[in-house]
Amino acid sequence: MSALSALAPLATVADVQARTDEALSTEQQARVAVLIADASAIIRHDVPNMPEPPPDTAVGVVCTAVLRALASPADGNASETVGGHSRTAAHAGGGLYLTDDELDRLRPPVPPPRAAFSIWTVR
After folding, report:
1. d(CA 91, CA 99)
2. Cα 19 from chain centroid?
3. Cβ(74)–Cβ(28) under 8 Å?
4. Does residue 45 register a pLDDT over 70?
5. Whole-angstrom Cα distance, residue 10 to residue 77?
6. 19-24-27 Cα angle (round to 5)
């Protein structure tokens, strides 16, 4: 077991359920648990300097990624049409992914510059 997988997930199935009006079936709850673990591992890989404990934004970021993955067509299609209704995935890869903005919400803030500076004068 790697060090990353030994860490606790950054959200729970209950956190995801709290962010949707649709009741998750037992099968969906099992899939959500796997997606949470995957999203947590992706975050820890892509944001290795994330503070511990994780920032308050971590739960929301994980839940957003998981709900987005649940909304993706299960067969991996980028688009689908049923009758007069069509839907196109916003991300070409579909499935579980995190946006740059979401990852930025997990990174530590950049400290202000603390270096000396020079002022040039004109004579």
Report:
1. 10
2. 14
3. no
4. yes
5. 28
6. 140
Q: Is 45 exposed, middle or buried (CB count within 10 Å of its CB: 0-12, 13-18, 19+)?
A: exposed
pTM, rounded to two decimals: 0.74
What does the H/E/C string look like for the chain? CCHHHHCCCCCCHHHHHHCCCCCCCHHHHHHHHHHHHHHHHHHHHHCCCCCCCCCCHHHHHHHHHHHHHHHCCCCCCCEEEECCEEEECCCCCCCCCCCHHHHHCCCCCCCCCCCCCCCCCCC
Residue with tokens 């839940």: 63
- If you average pLDDT over each of 48-52, 110-114, 117-121, which comes out highest? 48-52
